[in-house]
Design brief:
about 450 residues, alpha/beta, 2 domains, seven-stranded mixed sheet, globular, disordered N terminus, binds pyridoxal-5'-phosphate
Amino acid sequence: MARETNEKGSDSGNTTPRRRAKADIREVGGRRLQPSTLMMGHGYDPMLSEGALKPPIFLTSTFVFESAAAGKRHFEGVTGKRPGGAEGLVYSRFNGPNQEILEDRLGIWEDAEEALSFSSGMSAIATVMLASVRPGDTIIHSSPLYAATETLIGKILGRFGVHWLDFPAGATRAEIDAVMMRAASGRVAMIYLESPANPTNALVDVEAVRASRDATFPAEARPPIIIDNTFLGPLWQKPLIHGADMVIYSLTKYAGGHSDLVAGGAVGSKAVIDPVRAMRNTIGTILDPHSAWMLLRSLETLELRMTRAGENAAKVCAWLRDHPKVERLNYLGFLDEGSRQADIFNRHCTGAGSTFSLYLKGGEREAFAFLDALKIAKLAVSLGGTETLASHPAAMTHLSVPDARKAALDIGDNLVRISIGVEDAGDLIADFEQALDMV
Ligand SMILES: *Cc1c(COP(=O)(O)O)cnc(C)c1O
């Protein structure tokens, strides 16, 4: 780190000039480099770390200032006295080299101006919400949401006088308009979406939400559209293009991809990210350097892993679909052409993902027999890892959901949730075949 002093600070925003100078090659010979290429080196200059090809893990709680004046400038940035954020590293609750490199790379996938990393997907969501809600505000959201997100909005923010109004994930423009109109009589903090929704896989029409928001709210009072893109992003769905202002991730899932870390992320324009960064600085929901380093390794293979998992899921689902013990599948690759869901999929998504719902003929007994017989697929919640996982939402992740709501969300006792990994597709089919024989 001694050589850092070779590079003087400049007004380059939040990413420290220390790393930026040499590591920011975005095109070669006029060709714009693709994210899969940029994941190997973007945002990191080996010469600033003794030539180490991979970035060291920076285990330090605080950073030494070059001079008292530099320390003052950094704090003016951190506290918001001067716009643009910190120019250098200050204290590890605010930022650190591993997290900054990760954030630079995360932003690449969606061409986002800024990105932030968090200690979990939920801490990302909570920090984003805390940064903008005030008592009396309404959060408009799509339904269903990840269970902990519903708890955060309904039970926790509700205690502080924050209200919510929702529309179903597949809602039409008219249905979305109706909810926007009802909410618009008061201050709306944000429009919060999750697509595909967990566990139904229902898609939200982000373009329609954007058009509805812009038609309902005057320019100076437009709430940001924020979307949880954990299931298809950043490879198969890029909601910033379709009108979202901020995209949130549980990086625990596909981005981390190996079921060995918990992390979250948010990407968007500087204008929407800056207040979230200020809240993260205050409450300390930043990711730790070790997990940030692990994620840098994960992002190098993100496209490979997701592509393989997606291909495997297509093969497994094609096989499962015709099995006599299978009632139906809820897989984005099998939407009815001409349906509203297929229309949204065709406009917003470039892949069907690898997480789907399998409805067996029968009920809990059949579903449990199937789950207990699996030999390759592991019986665990979560998704997006290299290994195939299977779980029973009604008895596990959604156990506490009231029966009426379970019925409305199609979370039956015969539902098995499956996240396909990168194993050999033929082996997975053999596993499902022998497990279905045991039902
Ligand atoms: C897992 C998940 C979350 C929460 O992320 P954590 O990393 O577990 O905190 C949020 N949204 C969706 C859609 C998820 O699948």
